[in-house]
From TrEMBL:
GO terms for MF: catalytic activity; iron-sulfur cluster binding
Domain Elp3/MiaA/NifB-like radical SAM core: 13-213
Superkingdom of origin organism: Bacteria
Protein name per Swiss-Prot or TrEMBL: Elp3/MiaA/NifB-like radical SAM core domain-containing protein
Protein species of origin: Frisingicoccus caecimuris
Length: 229
């Protein structure tokens, strides 16, 4: 499992994949990422400290991800991140959080004392598909509700059951309402949610221009950021 990497093209930054406590929701139909959760706090702290020791501050920007939300990281790990920020001169932090924590985001901003870019796994702005099929437990109705709290939505494309129209609408919303975003091309995993190869092929052709868009990061593989397995 790779847990440290450097992103050197768009939005240059270092990125670490840390271990967290179990996801507070943990019921998204498509997600087996939560298998990286742990309840062994001492082991989590030790591993996370080891991973964070790789950070150099080269870009002054650090992204911290885990298999839940940033709020599921141990308190000791949050303190270790704070020390790395101070030691390495980190000026901006990327975090990811579930919708349920939207009213607590400023807690992290106050704790770390630097700007935080908050990502959120929206997956799709199609409310029916997101809630009734993917079981995301993010009950917003309009993109403006998301933009009021979060800076950078993460979308998923290429799932069986999605349509071209849904994807086109999602990308239009992303470009019109947010300064940054990530698009993840779905990869089959251990869940019953499956990819749609034909839809993925269409997306790659129709939206290939996004690869050059400085505001959107497209991940054709879930390890394209250099972390994960």
């Amino acid at each position: 499992m790779e847990r440290y990497s450097r992103i050197t093209n768009k939005n240059q930054r270092e990125i670490v994949l840390l271990k967290a406590k179990p996801c507070a929701w943990g019921k998204c139909r498509f997600c087996d990422y939560i298998d990286d959760n742990s309840e062994n706090i001492p082991e989590m702290i030790r591993l996370n400290r080891e991973v964070l020791s790789n950070v150099t501050g080269e870009f002054g920007v650090l992204e911290v991800i885990d298999s839940a939300s940033c709020f599921e990281l141990p308190e000791e790990t949050l303190w270790d991140i704070k020390k790395v920020i101070q030691k390495c001169g980190i000026k901006k932090l990327f975090f990811e959080s579930h919708w349920m924590y939207r009213r607590r985001l400023d807690e992290m901003r106050e704790y770390f004392g630097i700007p935080i870019v908050y990502k959120i796994g929206v997956e799709t702005f199609d409310n029916d598909f997101r809630e009734n099929y993917l079981n995301k437990h993010a009950d917003f109705k309009e993109p403006e509700e998301v933009a009021a709290y979060f800076d950078s939505p993460c979308l998923m494309v290429g799932i069986k059951g999605q349509t071209r129209e849904m994807i086109a609408r999602d990308i239009k919303i992303l470009k019109n309402n947010f300064k940054l975003g990530t698009i993840n091309v779905y990869t089959d995993n251990t869940t019953d949610v499956k990819k749609d190869p034909e839809l993925i092929q269409w997306f790659a052709k129709e939206y290939g221009w996004l690869v050059e868009d400085p505001a959107v990061e497209v991940l054709f593989e879930n390890t394209d950021f250099g972390v994960g397995d």
